[in-house]
Amino acid sequence: MSRELEGLTSWHADWSGLRVVVAGAGVTGFSAADTLAELGADVLLVAESIDDVRASMCDVIGVGVLVATKEEPVPAPLIAFAPDVMIVSPGYPPRHPLVQWAQSTDTPLWGDIELAWRVRDKVARADWILVTGTNGKTTTTQLTAAMLNESGFRVAPCGNIGIPVLDAVRDPEGFDVYIVELSSFQLHYASGIEPYASVCLNIADDHIDWHGSHAAYEQAKAKVYAHTRVACVYNRADQATLRMVENAEVVEGARAIGFGLDSPGPSDFGVVDGILCDRAFLEDRRDRALELTTVEELASLGLSAPHIVADILAASALARSYGATPEDISRALSGFSLDHHRSETIASVNGVSWIDDSKATNPHAADASLRASSSVVWIVGGLLKGVEIDNLVARHLSRLKGVVIIGREKQALVDAFGRHAPQLPVRAIETDDTSQVMVLAVRAARALAAPGDVVLLAPAAASMDQFSDYAHRGRLFREAVIAEIGGEADDTSASRRP
């Protein structure tokens, strides 16, 4: 390493001439390359492919581009470039040849999150609130942002939610606080961040193919609590998150704040007689609680599914730690709606409800979605990412009326249903035509459904085997439902199931 990096902890430090390789040409990679070029660094962007628009933009901003093939993942020009540091996009797992080459040459590895933390003072040194977990990250990030926005703070939800943190840092308007959604990939490459508050919502098997083991996945998630200054929010129903807090090196005085659907203890958020309560941020917390909202009110807003209530409690804890009042939280919830493809009711016709939860991309999310209904025709399947599916299948047999399997990794699901429910009607969709997958799945589900049933798209798997992303999968599901049911469908598609 030919440059000292310890002093590069400000936008206003001297970044000129620093040689940086950015691995990945997606949204995150380009954001990092653009930032570094603005700082005056010498930047080489390396990727397996890059679209024409980004390639042209790199040329304009003075960033070199190098395509690394599978045959030569570490090209000779990259080696000759001799980078001082490599910025790794989340799509590059630790076993990738480019990452392993950097480690073998003692080239420091940063993610875009660490870079953003170092240059966070371009406009104003905003606080960071970090959100991670296997499921519920985006909803909790959006909720927290809405609550603090209602309090009058200038808030930027960013990170894995779709807006790179570096873009928020460079916004000329400036912010008081960033609500940063972090994936396990981003946390793996992050260090040195000192968040105001942090939460890991839950932990279940996911992305085992990327991390190599559940232990490595959990270790990455646990980094969210490192150096937290004020509030470490954890899930009382998930002991792994409590262990993370107990083992974290935090700033002296940081508090552990629990949330859960049961009655809260002092320093907790929870539910008592249908009332969501704060027993953490009030002086007399041993004898009193503050009311935030009610389950009945949330039901009227389509926000009363148990996993959504849990997200609301977690977000409330984060927002209260930063100064939001109970009244701010109540007002924010009254205007809040879930993203599309998250427990979204597409139609309710002839006693059958059709629900799009395409965002349930792992078994833990699908488990929460299935629990919200008592009689389900389940559309499931996709890229399982190395996770085990048997427990999920066995847990929900009593509520399943039938199953429609999509995706290219069908055999594991077919075998699981064969072992646990050989009498259950199971239909596997045999087509590689993306435009036809949901058409055939909806037809198969309609044949299995009866009045009182829910047809639920909760794939428990990633989508990239047959679709561009979970949103693409959800859109095609919606289109197929509307086409199959015809004019009977309620085309508002803005409702959420209670």
Automatic annotation (TrEMBL):
Kindly state which keywords UniProt assigns to this record, in alphabetical order.
ATP-binding, Cytoplasm, Ligase, Nucleotide-binding
Cross-referenced InterPro entries: Mur-like_cat_sf, Mur_ligase_C, Mur_ligase_C_dom_sf, Mur_ligase_cen, MurD
* Gene Ontology biological-process annotations: cell division; peptidoglycan biosynthetic process; regulation of cell shape
Q: Where is the Mur ligase central domain?
A: 131-265
Compartments where located: Cytoplasm
Please give the Pfam families that the UniProt record associates with this protein: Mur_ligase_C, Mur_ligase_M
Report the Gene3D superfamilies cross-referenced here.
Mur ligase, C-terminal domain (3.90.190.20), Mur-like, catalytic domain (3.40.1190.10), NAD(P)-binding Rossmann-like Domain (3.40.50.720)
Entry's Gene Ontology molecular function annotations = ATP binding; UDP-N-acetylmuramoylalanine-D-glutamate ligase activity
Span of domain Mur ligase C-terminal: 341-460
Primary residence: cytoplasm
Which pathway does UniProt place it in? Cell wall biogenesis; peptidoglycan biosynthesis
A GO-annotated cellular component: cytoplasm
Q: Which NCBIfam families match?
A: murD
Task: Indicate what this protein is called per its UniProt record.
Answer: Unannotated protein
* Organism whose genome encodes this protein: freshwater metagenome
